């Protein structure tokens, strides 16, 4: 059966974003072993699939006219429609206005432990910290990412990044492009191979630079929340990532060893030393908190007709008795358990009606009594956490009593949950959350997530993808390659000979690969100079009509790549797994570096990255129809290297127009086959190309791209 017929729903997704902006929004792809496994499992259809989403008000659908238009509902419905034979469960565990620290504690209430894919959206809710090193927000997100990656289902994790508050203001002034933590969080993508999607980068050219009708900030956002159109474009990015992963599977099928490594390889140590996630937490909210209450005198368990469950009292003297296990868990061999535990009660604060309550240990445990005022002057109603240090006990009773004293003249008090820190990491995290964040918005996981299944989401609009091959791009003649560099590495310091420097190796490869083209390679590196020197003296180091310029200065801000669409190669990311984690012979730091400069082998791998970015691996042929076509491949006497080795590793036959289109696009728009093994066997090369979003000038529609990518997925299976 033709691929187009088999995958009609998959091919029919209608993108709102143009193809170039979809590419721009793919902030990090990497090797994506877990995501490749998920896409393969979807296509085979032999196992149930569970997908989830965590985040704040954006992911809950705030700003949409109906929750069915939220990005996760649209994406979930697309997955369900595309794979009708597969049992798919979608669960939205987002809670409005919560930071990721809250989800670290209460993860089990929001995501299935055997989930296959989890999206994470917290940029707006985590606050701002613009430091590159020792970033508080990145540390918080790392803890959540580690908890997710360690779940029994070994899920693929995708960061869904939205514009920071103020960036999408309906009218100027607006927050600058770089004023967000999403670029710093990209280090987590590189370190853990978690994919990243950037709505900011996908929209910026159209919304801010061109201000194109239908794509301006005011067309896509209601305030700092995306509206229906903005959510649709978030779904576009998620679908595009899935389809691009399908293309990756076509070119490099999933190997059994790759799947085995997902389950057997231990989670690497934290990127920030000691930044461990809590191994266990006790988080009770909603009905799970109700089961811990032994006595409620004057308190009623109610959602107050708002879907926000908790125990509410309105008169002084009301009492609530909660039973807790406050014993601290410790790892084997870690010594005796501590004799105290941090306990954090969720309670409501509001600007009207609220009273005060006393929290005290009433039986089997001890603690200092705590008086909590539910009234504040802010014109919002928000859930806060009240911290208590409680002695260890298997049957600790805490009594909450509403006091006669009041700041508002009334006595309403609401308690909606409790978190017990069961290890030191959880205790430290909760302590900082109590003092740095303070607020934990009201939200009942058990009631909030069940309504988010894909079956309940409205069907998204779909149509048959446009067929047809991509227009063949006019071949560009590369005339001159120039390196502008002002550091000792590119100059070739610490190589045994300058001919072994990465730029010399790359330039020589380019000249040999295109013997009919006049190519000039110029190394403008100056030892010991920062980029500010080259800013002043650029004309002396680079030809003004240069076609390609490499810059090597260890840039720590990924926002430049996203803002200007300049490609980035990372030797750190390419080598880290082999050099630091596995410490594989021949790939250890001492094998590749002389001091902090790469040696000959390190320079060769830098050249590998540059070649990988440039190289084409697919040789397309247009062949007449035949039941017995014979193709002969003959090695010629002519050679560019002085030798004659030639390797052919496979063939793909386009069985219908959609498949032909995607293969044509692969051939003409880069042609790289992921997973290619270079001379030194660096398998992490895909991870190093952190931002490769090129605009090819073709008149391709985004819908056509979707059709082509989907066809590739079927071929891979």
Automatic annotation (TrEMBL):
It comes from the Eukaryota. Residues 53-232 form the SGNH hydrolase-type esterase domain. Gene3D superfamilies: SGNH hydrolase. Residues 702-717 have a biased composition (Low complexity). Residues 696-717 are annotated as: Disordered. InterPro entries: SGNH_hydro, SGNH_hydro_sf. Signal peptide: none annotated. This is SGNH hydrolase-type esterase domain-containing protein. The lineage of its organism: Eukaryota, Viridiplantae, Chlorophyta, core chlorophytes, Chlorophyceae.
């Amino acid at each position: 059966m033709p691929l187009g017929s088999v995958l009609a729903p998959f091919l029919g997704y209608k993108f709102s974003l143009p193809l170039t902006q979809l590419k721009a929004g793919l902030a990090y792809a990497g090797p994506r072993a877990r995501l490749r496994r998920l896409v393969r499992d979807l296509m085979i259809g032999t196992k149930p699939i569970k997908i989830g989403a965590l985040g704040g008000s954006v992911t809950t659908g705030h700003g949409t006219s109906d929750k069915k238009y939220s990005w996760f509902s649209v994406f979930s419905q697309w997955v369900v429609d595309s794979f009708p034979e597969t049992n798919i469960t979608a669960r939205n565990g987002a809670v409005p206005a919560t930071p990721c620290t809250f989800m670290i504690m209460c993860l089990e209430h929001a995501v299935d432990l055997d989930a296959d894919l989890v999206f994470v959206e917290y940029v707006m809710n985590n606050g701002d910290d613009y430091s590159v090193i020792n970033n508080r927000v990145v540390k918080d997100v790392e803890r959540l990412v580690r908890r997710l990656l360690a779940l029994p289902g070994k899920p693929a994790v995708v960061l869904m990044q939205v514009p920071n508050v103020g960036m999408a203001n309906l009218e100027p002034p607006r927050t600058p492009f770089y004023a967000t933590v999403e670029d710093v969080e990209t280090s987590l993508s590189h370190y853990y191979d978690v994919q990243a999607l950037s709505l900011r980068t996908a929209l910026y050219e159209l919304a801010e630079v061109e201000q194109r009708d239908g794509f301006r900030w005011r067309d896509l956002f209601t305030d700092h929340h995306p509206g229906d159109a903005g959510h649709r474009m978030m779904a576009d990015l998620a679908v595009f990532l899935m389809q691009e992963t399908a293309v990756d599977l076509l070119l490099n099928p999933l190997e059994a060893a790759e799947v085995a490594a997902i389950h057997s390889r231990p989670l690497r140590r934290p990127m920030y030393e000691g930044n461990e996630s809590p191994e266990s937490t006790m988080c009770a909210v909603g009905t799970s908190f109700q089961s811990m209450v032994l006595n409620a005198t004057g308190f009623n368990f109610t959602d107050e007709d708002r879907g926000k469950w908790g125990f509410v009292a309105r008169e002084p003297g009301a009492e609530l008795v909660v039973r807790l296990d406050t014993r601290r868990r410790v790892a084997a061999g870690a010594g005796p358990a501590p004799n105290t535990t941090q306990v954090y009660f969720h309670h409501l604060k509001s600007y009207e009606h609220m009273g005060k309550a006393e929290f005290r240990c009433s039986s089997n445990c001890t603690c200092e009594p705590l008086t909590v005022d539910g009234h504040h002057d802010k014109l919002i109603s928000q859930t806060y956490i009240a911290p208590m240090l409680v002695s260890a006990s298997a049957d600790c009773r805490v009594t909450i009593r509403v006091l006669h004293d009041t700041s508002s003249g009334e006595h309403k008090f609401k308690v909606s949950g409790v978190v017990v820190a069961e290890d030191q990491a959880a205790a430290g995290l909760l302590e900082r959350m109590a003092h740095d964040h303070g607020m934990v918005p009201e939200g009942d996981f058990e009631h909030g997530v069940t309504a988010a299944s894909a079956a309940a989401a409205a069907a998204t609009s779909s149509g048959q993808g446009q067929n047809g091959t991509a227009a063949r791009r006019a071949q560009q003649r590369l005339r001159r390659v120039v390196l502008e560099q002002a550091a000792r590495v590119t100059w070739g310091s610490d190589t045994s000979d300058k001919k072994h420097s990465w730029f010399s190796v790359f330039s020589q490869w380019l000249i040999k690969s295109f013997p009919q083209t006049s190519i000039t390679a110029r190394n403008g590196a100056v030892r010991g100079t920062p980029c500010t020197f080259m800013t002043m003296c650029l004309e002396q180091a680079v030809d003004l009509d240069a076609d390609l310029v490499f810059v090597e200065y260890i840039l720590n801000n990924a926002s430049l790549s996203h803002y200007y669409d300049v490609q980035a190669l990372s030797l750190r990311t390419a080598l880290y797994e082999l050099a630091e984690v596995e410490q594989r012979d021949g790939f250890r730091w001492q094998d590749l570096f002389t001091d902090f400069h790469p040696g000959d082998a390190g320079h060769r791998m830098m050249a590998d990255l540059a070649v990988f970015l440039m190289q084409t691996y697919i040789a397309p042929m247009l062949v007449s129809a035949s039941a017995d076509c014979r193709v002969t491949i003959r090695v010629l006497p002519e050679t560019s290297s002085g030798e004659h080795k030639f390797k052919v590793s496979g063939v793909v036959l386009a069985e219908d127009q959609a498949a032909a289109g995607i293969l044509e696009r692969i051939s003409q728009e880069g042609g790289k086959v992921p997973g290619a093994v270079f001379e030194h066997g660096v398998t992490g090369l895909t991870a190093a190309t952190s931002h490769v979003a090129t605009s090819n000038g073709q008149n391709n529609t985004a819908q056509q791209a979707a059709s082509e990518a989907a066809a590739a997925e079927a071929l891979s299976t």
